[in-house]
Amino acid sequence: MMTFDKVKITAIRTKEDYYCDKKKKRLKYATPKVYKKVMFEDDIYELGELYREMKNCNERKSYDSKLVVSFEVSIDY
């Protein structure tokens, strides 16, 4: 049986510019603002369960963010 240990799904959103009311135009940040939010963190024992969690996190994230998934795989005999 294949298990997925230390599964961590993180939503990452990057903002590169903002609207300035004083100057009435969009301005760029000197360095982009990166927002990270951990959506899921646990151990998973089936591939289907991993798929369901990734799909669930993808539906909950905001439209302009992306998901980063990290995990360790081990096989139990």
Detail the topology: elements first, then pairings.
Layout: E1 2-20, E2 25-44, H1 47-60, E3 65-75
Antiparallel strand pairs: 1-2, 1-3
Key features of this structure:
1 helix; 77 residues; alpha+beta; 18% helix; 3 strands; elongated; 3-stranded antiparallel β-sheet
Helix content: 10-25%
Structural class: alpha+beta
Number of helices: 1
Mean pLDDT: 93
H-E string? EEHE
Largest sheet data: 3 strands, antiparallel
Q: Describe the global form.
A: elongated
Give an overview of the whole structure:
By secondary structure, the chain is α+β, with helices and mostly antiparallel strands. It has one domain (2-75). It has one helix and three strands; from the N terminus they run E-E-H-E. A hairpin with a 4-residue loop joins strand 1 and strand 2 (25-44). The longest helix has 14 residues, at 47-60. The relative contact order is 0.39.
